[in-house]
Structures are given as structure tokens and as C-alpha cells.
Amino acid sequence: MSYYFFIDDTMLPVPPAKMTIKIKGKNKTINLINEGEVNIIKTPGLTEIAFDARLPNRNYPFANYDSSLTDALTSNFLGSSFSFKKASYFIDRFESAKKAQYPMRLIISRMSGAFSMLFDTNMLVTLENYSINEDADEGFDVTCPLVFKQYRPYGTKECEVTTDEDGKQHLTVKETRPAIGHEIPTAMRIRNEQSVWEAVKGVSNGSLDWRAVMSANGISNPCEKLKPGMVMHLG
């Protein structure tokens, strides 16, 4: 089975050897008179994902430096990658993510040996913590433990209070203002040959689930290049 880790449009060159996905429960246990303990079920908390990213400073044959799933599969098939990037490139991306104070899209794709999609993890996250570890036993390579937390978009509502001729006040709730993000169209026209993942990422900044868009448009192959002029429905 092959793993591909994408942080926005950046793919990690070496898939982590292991990772932890923690789904945090928010259920509350209370004591009732004569009933004992009962469990009050609440909405789950934010998911946390942690893993160690190995960032080589040498162009190893097992490392992959592509920027899309299509490129990654092509390099896997050809047995080579043509866009080597040093560890500093990825460290700079991590630093920019922290400074930008903006959520990013984390995608972990799991594929079988026949390059068919098994399942994936796809969510908006924030980079909570990261560190840079250097070890003489690892040569010039760098290891970065990364901790991500799920991001749930939220918004505020603007209210307007008006007074009519009789002196009665009326409250009008205006359209919800998103705390972050931009307006996403309901459909898009493909301009250049690109995969579903690349097209959806470009138009939504990673806030849309490309798998749902694939299903809605009857596309079965995530690596299929969409033809220019095609209209793809987004929601």
C-alpha cells in the first residue's frame, strides 16, 4: 500500500513511518440520584493528527518531490522524480503556515499496489506545533514532528435593530459573515488540463472535498486529466 501526504499543494517527500489520528470525545459523565453514573453524549471534539516528517537533504531514489497526486503516481511508475527540494523548502512552508494564521488542507491518500484509491483523510487543519530535529545518525537529513488540529469554519452574524412607527423594535439578522475564506462558485469551467484535486484545490483554497465533487460529476478516476472547456459542478 502506498501513502501520499499533502499539506495544501506541498507533498511530503517521504511518507511518515507512522502517524496518530486522535478523535477527541466530549461526552460528559454525571451522577444522578438513585441512578448512578450516566453518560451525556456530546458532539466530538476536534481531531488531532500527529506524525514525524523526514526531510532529506539528498535526492534519495525513494523520495518523491511532486506537487500533485497525478505527478506522484507518474514518478512512482517511472521510478524517478525530477523536482528535488532541500529540507529548508519544507521548513519554510511550515513557518509560513504558522505566520499566515490560516487553515490548510491536509490530505493523506492510501492507494493499493494497483493504484486504486483505498481511502483517505481529507480535512481543513491548522498547524499547531512543529519542531526541527537534527541527529548525527541521520546525516544531513532533518526530522520535523508535526501536530495538526482539525479546523471547523465558523462565522458571525450581524444584527440590525429598527424601530417602526408604533415604537416597536424589530431585530433583523443579516447574512452570516464567514470568519475566514472566500465565496466559492457553484460551478467552474476547466481552463487547462488538470486533475479533479488540482481544480477543486485551486477554486476553493482546499475548503471543498474533492471526493464529493468527483462523485457529483460522475468522475471515477482521481488521476484523470479534465479537458479544457468542461463545466464541473461544485455544489
Summarize the biggest pleated sheet: 8 strands, antiparallel
Gyration radius, in Å: 23 Å
Order of helices and strands: EEEEEEHHEEEEEEEEEHHE
Instruction: Indicate the CATH architecture of the domain at 1-27 and 37-152.
Output: Roll
Helical fraction:
10-25%
Give the integer mean of the pLDDT values.
80
Structural class: alpha+beta
* Spatial shape: extended
Number of strands: 16
Level-1 CATH class name of the domain at 1-27 and 37-152: Mainly Beta
What fraction of the residues are assigned to beta strands by DSSP?
A: 35-45%
CATH topology of the domain at 1-27 and 37-152: Pnp Oxidase, Chain A
How many helix segments?
Answer: 4
Q: Termini distance?
A: 32 Å
Give unreliable regions as ranges. none
Quick recap:
This is LysM domain-containing protein. The protein is built from four helices and 16 strands. The protein is α+β, with helices and mostly antiparallel strands and 235 residues long.
